[in-house]
Design brief:
The structure is a single chain. This protein has 308 residues and is of the alpha/beta class. The protein contains 8 helices and 13 strands. The strands form 2 sheets. Strands 1-2-3-5-4 form a 5-stranded mixed beta barrel. A two-stranded antiparallel sheet has the order 6-7. α2 packs across α8. It is globular, with a radius of gyration of 21 Å. The protein binds guanosine-5'-diphosphate (GDP), magnesium ion and zinc ion. The site of zinc ion has 7 residues, from α7.
Length: 308
């Protein structure tokens, strides 16, 4: 019988069958011995069979439409966290602490590296000063940032669970399929879902006093079902933002605005860091590529190189 894995914890898989029935299954030995890439994860479509003892076993794995892979700092193998994810929703907070461009770009690179379409959400807009007042943190600055990312091709929403800003648009984004919310802990991922679906009652972590970072509250990896039948992947690893499964040679392709430029660099395989005749650096100098995007590229490039 075909089903989908909705929860994975300690070798037990909660599988929802096509009939809607929920069963708990263990893996057939052969699947357990599979490579790290083949481990069964949430979102996976599996074939399950009842055993004569009255329990269930996962017999096989169906081909995946997409995969969300992470490579944590120092990890030697990419780790699959979810399968058949339709989109990434990268959530950051406007304040406090102030929005870090490096964090935004990191999240977007994760989406690109996994070939997932990504929507950017800037939450906690109620804490942002109304106009240009407040300098970096002001609404004008956030709107300018949203404009920059929209220009690159990322749909960008500004939201607040306090004022309700952007919530109808976010609901629209989560309308179908499986979305993975990704972002640092404390930015309001659980709060946004609770605001859209009051029945969910996801745990909201209090902000700790140290550096404004939230506590991790998720335990098992699971697909949270939204009342309208779509799903959100909730996995412990998703709040920790490393460079996930990115190849050094492919990093520049994870910056969409670099793609038309990289073929115009003098050297094939240009790193865009120091080679002469680099079309990407030239575009930065001419103001056609945002300098902070290029900074993010350089930082991630060094990080990926040192991890290799
Ligand atoms: N002012 C304000 N606070 C928010 C907003 N969204 C979340 N919070 C608060 O931020 C903290 C962390 O929220 P949480 O949903 O647990 O973040 P998560 O770790 O990303 O799931 C909680 O204290 C929330 O009440 C928002 O839009 N505005
Ligand atoms: Mg949360
Ligand atoms: Zn170059």
């Amino acid at each position: 019988m075909k089903g989908r894995v909705h929860e994975a914890v300690g070798g037990l898989y909660r599988v929802v069958l096509e009939s809607g029935d929920r069963v708990t299954a263990r893996l057939r030995g052969r699947l357990k011995r599979g490579s790290k890439e083949d481990r069964v994860v949430i979102g996976d479509e599996v074939e399950v069979e009842p055993t004569p003892e009255g329990s269930w076993v996962v017999e096989g794995l169906y081909p995946r439409r997409s995969r969300l892979v992470r490579r944590g700092a120092g990890a030697r193998y990419p780790r699959l966290v979810a399968a058949n994810v339709d989109r990434l929703v990268a959530v950051v907070s406007a304040a406090p602490p102030p929005l870090k461009r490096a964090v935004v770009d990191r999240l977007l690179v994760v989406g690109e590296a996994n070939r997932l379409s990504t929507v950017l959400v800037v939450n906690k807009m109620d804490l942002v000063a109304p106009g240009a007042v407040g300098g970096e943190g002001g609404r004008d600055a956030v709107e300018a940032l949203a404009g920059l990312y929209r220009g690159i091709g990322y749909p960008t929403l500004t939201t607040s669970v306090v004022t309700g800003e952007g919530l109808p648009q976010l609901r629209e984004v989560l309308q179908e399929g499986v979305s993975a919310l990704l972002g640092p802990s404390g930015v309001g991922k659980s709060s946004l879902l609770n605001a859209l679906c009051p029945g969910l009652n996801l745990r909201v972590g209090e902000l700790s006093s140290r550096g404004g970072r939230g506590r991790h509250t998720t335990v098992a990896a699971r697909l949270v079902e939204l009342p309208w039948g779509a799903f959100v992947a909730d996995t412990p690893g998703l709040s920790d933002v490393g460079v996930w499964g990115v190849d050094v040679q492919e990093l520049d392709q994870c910056f969409p605005e670099f793609r038309p430029l990289r073929t115009r660099c003098r050297f094939r395989g240009c790193s865009h860091l120091r080679e002469p005749g680099c079309a990407v650096r030239q575009a930065v100098e001419m103001g056609r590529v945002d300098p902070l995007r290029f900074e993010s590229y350089k930082d991630l490039r060094l990080e990926v190189e040192s991890a290799a």
